[in-house]
């Protein structure tokens, strides 16, 4: 163990003791991490969750709300002054104004504190008054969580794995041609390094747009204030690294990325989370075909490695035995399907994360899977097509602004009908065509005490924080 690791461990130990004393003698704090890959709806999830905790008329599944024990809910300044505040007010305005639109997506770590004044239940209800429980919601990109897998790999291992995985992807053809024309043994040349990094970033951007999930390093897509820095100017190259060569400099920068970007994120943010929701655009992956589904399954397994610290010695020392207590896998955009198909979407979500969830369960974390819609953008209808009833959803199409009825195709009852061809590497679904449309948020007319309409957001909240209320 190096001096840096020892210092990290001591710092985390002091913070953990401080947190325990604070909860025991003052006001409990629940730190809820919210993450997911691109287009999974993190910003909308947090905005709708907070709005529905402030106005709880649509939260019957949250027992403390349905029992009337939440006397008040209010926003407070967050405890972490160096982290950006989640822009709740502007995001809510985007969803609720007369011409609603989807808010901007997650670009960096942000935080929001919601405080709940809750009456205890049972024997304690007559012995003490209401207590204040703080919910600190931490929003961060799922791509950053995938970076944990880099810590266990050398540059040579990462390069070999990456190049093998992308070899047959059309999105990688231009970068692979660029790489083939580059001599990694040549002396380091900064314009060449920058060109390769830009080419690899262009591949990652195209792969994410095509529905692939394994788009690491995550900061290449969300660089923030690191844009253009050497720590983000590397790319995968195979071969031995000779002193002074381009490939050796790529290796050095890869190692710097792990030590100066990945480790600080886990030390400063991830290590303090005790409840976690992972949002998944499963319908989007199904729409993009078997390879995208298999890629999503592997990404889920990689994400769960972060919740199994025993696999990584550095992370184990950092967390000092603390583990996330509950993890919810939520398949978003359930409002794109008629409710009769929601159980099938939940079953697919459970199957996609089965390997990862089994490992988390073994480590002591309680997990669950749900099909949800953080903000319901559609209504349901039944049409007759060729004499057969057809369950559809109606909504405003995002691209055209026109109202339309939509039938995405029937999801299979057996998730293996999707996962088997995905594991086999099939290029398209053999017996079905699954489609998905992008809907705009519907104009809202909310009654006093009601938050935005949703699907099972109350059940998600009950699983994540209900036991602490």
UniProtKB/TrEMBL annotation:
It holds the Pfam family DUF463. InterPro entries: YcjX-like. PANTHER family: ATPASE, ATPASE-RELATED. This is YcjX family protein.
């Amino acid at each position: 163990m190096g001096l840096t690791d020892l210092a990290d461990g001591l710092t985390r130990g002091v913070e953990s003791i401080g947190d325990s004393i604070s909860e025991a003698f003052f006001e409990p704090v629940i730190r809820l991490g919210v993450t997911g890959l691109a287009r999974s709806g993190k910003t909308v999830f947090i905005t709708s969750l907070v709005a529905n905790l402030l106005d709880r008329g649509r939260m019957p599944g949250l027992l403390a709300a349905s029992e009337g024990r939440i006397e008040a809910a209010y926003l407070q300044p967050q405890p972490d002054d160096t982290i950006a505040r989640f822009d709740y007010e502007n995001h809510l305005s985007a969803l609720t104004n007369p011409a609603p639109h989807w808010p901007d997506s997650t670009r960096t770590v942000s935080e929001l504190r919601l405080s709940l004044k809750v009456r205890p239940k049972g024997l304690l209800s007559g012995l003490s008054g209401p207590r204040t429980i703080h919910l600190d919601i931490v929003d961060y990109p799922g791509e950053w969580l995938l970076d944990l897998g880099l810590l266990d790999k050398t540059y040579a291992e990462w390069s070999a794995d990456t190049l093998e995985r992308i070899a047959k992807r059309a999105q990688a053809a231009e970068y692979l041609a660029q790489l083939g024309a580059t001599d990694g043994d040549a002396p380091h040349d900064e314009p060449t390094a920058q060109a390769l990094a830009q080419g690899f970033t262009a591949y990652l951007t195209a792969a994410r747009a095509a529905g692939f999930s394994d788009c690491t390093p995550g900061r290449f897509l969300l660089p923030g204030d690191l844009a253009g820095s050497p720590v983000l100017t590397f790319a995968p190259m195979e071969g031995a690294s000779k002193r002074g060569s381009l490939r050796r400099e790529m290796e050095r920068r890869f190692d710097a990325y792990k030590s100066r970007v990945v480790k600080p994120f886990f030390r400063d943010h991830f290590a303090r989370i005790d409840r976690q929701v992972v949002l998944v655009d499963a319908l989007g992956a199904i729409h993009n075909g078997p390879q995208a589904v298999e890629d999503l399954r592997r990404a889920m397994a990689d994400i769960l490695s972060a919740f199994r610290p025993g696999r990584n010695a550095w992370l184990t020392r950092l967390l000092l035995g603390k583990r996330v207590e509950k993890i919810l896998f939520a398949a978003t955009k359930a409002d794109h399907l008629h409710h009769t198909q929601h159980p099938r979407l939940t079953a697919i979500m459970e199957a996609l994360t089965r390997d990862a969830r089994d490992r988390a369960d073994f480590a002591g974390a309680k997990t669950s899977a749900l099909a949800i819609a953080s903000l319901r953008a559609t209504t349901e209808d039944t049409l007759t097509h060729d004499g057969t009833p057809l369950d559809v959803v109606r909504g405003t199409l995002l691209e055209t602004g026109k109202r339309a009825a939509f039938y995405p195709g029937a999801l299979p009852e057996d998730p293996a009908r999707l996962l088997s061809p995905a594991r086999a590497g099939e290029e398209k679904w053999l017996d079905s065509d699954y489609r998905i449309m992008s809907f705009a948020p519907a104009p809202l007319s909310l009654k006093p005490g009601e938050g935005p309409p949703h699907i099972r957001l109350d059940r998600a909240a009950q699983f994540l924080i209900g036991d602490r209320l």
